[in-house]
Write a structure and sequence with these properties.
mainly beta, twelve-stranded antiparallel β-barrel, 14 strands, two-stranded antiparallel sheet, single chain, Porin
């Protein structure tokens, strides 16, 4: 796994240097950087920290391609923050009529567990509530799939602030990373639902401050067993909050 991580970092470096060369040719490139502070690290309904976390992220986009590096720093340690995870994502996005498509690859670099990898495909439709469906396939440690269906709506205020409302439901497909049922077996069943709200507040032309609140809950008894076993303190129904400062260029 460590060799693969080095290889993936090399790919990112090559991609970044290519973008640097593209600047010299006058091609348009965009990107963003952000840092979020959250009451807990919650991923797909799993509570992966007992205290607040800091999550920095950097993305660079060129035409339809983008690369992202994301990390988690956990405050649940006596002396200082502990780095627990760094993920790398490569994505290609395109549109056809009112459909939006995303195809990507994620490398999960974990400090206290075995690294793993996913491929994913997402399709969204540009109508009211912006419905989307994303299918993930873990071809490494999980050897299974995970499906997320989501809807969302945004309200823009005269001040430029935007209220974002969202809801999602997920389904596990024998993905071992998502945990096991009461018998200790992998399972296929509904996993977690989540509702969220955030307020995007512009700070000048490039910066945005976004406080958020979300509530996640299991959707089946199998998910209750899996989430309860994985979550740091056994929580299954999780209310968490956070705020993210972003810079776009």
């Amino acid at each position: 796994m460590k060799t693969l991580k080095v290889g993936f970092l090399t790919v990112i470096m090559i991609f970044t240097f290519s973008l640097t060369g593209a600047f010299a040719e006058g091609l348009k490139i965009g990107g963003s950087a952000s840092v979020g502070v959250f009451s807990n690290y919650v991923w797909r309904g799993q509570k992966l920290s007992n205290s607040f976390v800091i999550q920095p992220s950097v993305s660079i986009a060129y035409n339809n391609f983008s690369v992202n590096v994301w990390s988690n720093l956990d405050s649940d340690y006596s002396d200082n923050f502990e780095h627990t995870e760094t993920d790398f994502t490569l994505e290609y996005a395109f549109s056809m009529d009112r459909f939006n498509f995303n195809v990507g690859y994620i490398y999960y670099g974990l400090e206290s567990a075995t690294d793993t990898q996913e491929l994913y495909f997402s399709v969204g439709y540009d109508i009211m509530l912006s419905p989307s469906l994303t299918v993930y396939y873990d071809f490494d440690e999980g050897e299974g799939g995970f499906v997320v269906a989501s809807i969302g709506h945004s309200l823009t205020f005269p001040s430029g602030m935007v209220l974002n409302l969202g809801a999602s439901a997920s389904y596990n497909l024998n993905n071992e990373v998502m945990g096991y049922d009461n018998n200790g077996d992998e399972f296929s069943n509904f996993y977690n639902g989540e509702v969220s709200a955030s307020l995007s507040i512009p700070l000048g032309k490039a910066f945005t401050l976004e406080p958020m609140v979300a509530y996640s809950f299991p959707l089946s008894s199998d998910a209750e067993d899996a989430i309860g076993a994985i979550s740091d303190d056994g929580d299954k129904d999780i209310l968490y909050t956070g705020v993210t400062l972003s810079f776009s260029f």
